[in-house]
Amino acid sequence: MSSSVAPSSKAVVGLYRSYLRVISQWPADPIRPTRNMKTALRSQVTDAFRAPVATNELPARIQDAERQLAALQQITHNDNPNYYSKLVDMLEKETAKKNFEAIGKKGPSFFQRLFRTV
């Protein structure tokens, strides 16, 4: 949106709705299931659009909001859709490897200690 033209309330509402559409498409995060990014984004956007803004600041704020919206859209429509599944697989394999290595480093098992010959 050009900064020389005063934005209308219709443009602001359209921008808000665009944010809500992107947020509704936000994927679940299997790595952090207790940290809901969708809820955090929705809260942040709602607060930002409800906050009072001086008329002279509005064009710059809308321009900034449009840049942030474009970034969120790019993240939502990423070109690496298997990123999380690959990351989860890698983390699970690494954890299993560390657990396996830790078993060998714990020392003798209960039965080995029980039947140890001195």
TrEMBL record:
It holds the Pfam family UQCC2_CBP6. It comes from the Eukaryota. This is Mitochondrial protein M19.
